[in-house]
Amino acid sequence: xxxxxxxxxxxxxxxxxxxxxxxxxxxxxxxxxxxxxxxxxxxxxxxxxxxxxxxxxxxxxxxxxxxxxxxxxxxxxxxxxxxxxxxxxxxxxxxxxxxxxxxxxxxxxxxxxxxxxxxxxxxxxxxxxxxxxxxxxxxxxxxxxxxxxxxxxxxxxxxxxxxxxxxxxxxxxxxxxxxxxxxxxxxxxxxxxxxxxxxxxxxxxxxxxxxxxxxxxxxxxxxxxx
Length: 226
Ligand SMILES: NC(=O)c1ccc[n+]([C@@H]2O[C@H](COP(=O)([O-])OP(=O)(O)OC[C@H]3O[C@@H](n4cnc5c(N)ncnc54)[C@H](OP(=O)(O)O)[C@@H]3O)[C@@H](O)[C@H]2O)c1
Known about the structure:
The structure is a single chain. Helix content is 43%, strand content 11%. The chain is an alpha/beta fold. The chain has a six-stranded parallel beta sheet, with helices on both faces. Helix 3 packs parallel to helix 4 and helix 4 (113-138) packs parallel to helix 5 (163-183). The site of NADP nicotinamide-adenine-dinucleotide phosphate has 32 residues, from helix 1 and helix 4.
């Protein structure tokens, strides 16, 4: 863990699930824009490796491992953030999973209970735990921002998502709307982003990943995936 208390003018951003993929890309962009960024992931070994690499280019990067679906782990994370930074300006709820069954999307009929429970716990309840813990620190910011990484799957039947994932993302969108109403009067904005297909480790977990990718390309006006 690195502290940068002498950089008090910099905005502070926490991006959950930023040890790879979309979260890491967001982290790189915010670091390039001069933010202090706290990387997060549940696998501390992977997180520390990424932090070490990132710190070579960006001295303002920090890393704090936590499992967003574990209330105690989230409480410890925010205790650390409060001790070091005292406030938070940007929260990106990005941590997420999309479990497959033997490389295929499970149907409702074939979805194992543990996959359902874990997906809702990380993608939806995790965002709730993290946001609830973040609100006191966001209130200390002059321009608090909450950004939820939802999914097209939360808004439509993409043909490729399974019910546990789509339900978690639809829930995240509903959560965001209520949260925006509660935090707006405090000057804290809440927005969600619903990506289509973005080339990450998660996107590569389909057995027929190439065919899925082509189907997304075919229905995307720009004829490419993100
Ligand atoms: N890729 C796409 O096509 C796509 C499309 C629409 C939406 N999204 C959404 O975008 C977000 C990022 O997806 P991605 O494709 O970048 O996925 P990814 O490459 O699999 O990365 C997921 C990140 O979340 C972290 N994570 C997973 N479980 C966690 C937990 N319990 N606590 C804390 N961190 C956890 C992972 O680190 P650890 O493994 O160390 O925990 C990793 O850093 C997800 O919410 C996903 O649903 C993705």
